[in-house]
Amino acid sequence: MSQTSTETIVAEVASVPLNADNYIHTTLNYWKEDSEILREGQGKAANLTEHELRIARRADNAPNINPVAVRIRNIRPTLSSYTIPIQGFQVCYLSSQMRNWHKDEELKSVYFDEVSKLLKNVTGAVHVHSYEHHVRQKTLAEALATSSESKVDINGPVRRVHIDETPRSARTERNYYLPWTKPSNSHLHDRPFGIYNIWKPLKTIKRDPLCFCDARSLKSEDLQPGAVTVPNVGEIENFSIKAPRRGEEGRHEWCFVDQQGETEAVVFKIFDSRDENVEGGLEKHGVAHTSFVVEGTEGVEARESVEVRSFCFF
Fold it and tell me: Which of 29, 65, 97, 169 is 20–30 Å from 244 (CA)?
């Protein structure tokens, strides 16, 4: 099997408490209706440091959290049925030659190249530019207690349903990292583009797995523009996600991979300019995602993972 093969992985024995239908029942943190959006330097956030603002946005007891009971399907038995064109995400084989995930220079030279090859293979991109990466190796409690000033994010799982970029912020970041005024970027100017994330465990996931919402089950009315602080660019918009309205409970189709291993990378769409037109009466969106708590794993060692966000030009 090649290093960036899109072949799916042989099924393993499930370890989480799944019911007969291969679902786990848990709670996800959605956006609470009519909550205040905390923006850097404004209102209640006026005097907060970068990390304090992240605590206010990331803590499980944050006032803008709406915990909702959901069921999440373990898709390991049917991995090949999930693809980017249909659900917005895909599980791919990705074995890395990385030796030290804490060395940024190695990560940018070795792993970014591996990511680029996989993205070109899976999305059909003709040019890939990886611009942001983050390694997470702490529990949520440990991460909130550790300064994240000038970092991409806290060094732990994010337990709120979100999409990393709004379309406006996708273009803001593209223009920042790949300005059209630079001659070397001129060939990209008129090309459609997307932002895709590759999320990969550094060891088999035993707690705080990441789950993904089938993009077809998300509606525009579910999207709540919010704010997030990122390196270099500063504050940008992302989408928090509101739970389906009364009468549509359970509309969001949630999926995860039980016992996801270190060669199982999830490639998922954050934004794609080719999706901005309505097709067949349905609007296409990026993939909402979040980590979640599996009952009985609270004492297990912290999850370790790496994520890379990349611009893909078509």
Answer: 169
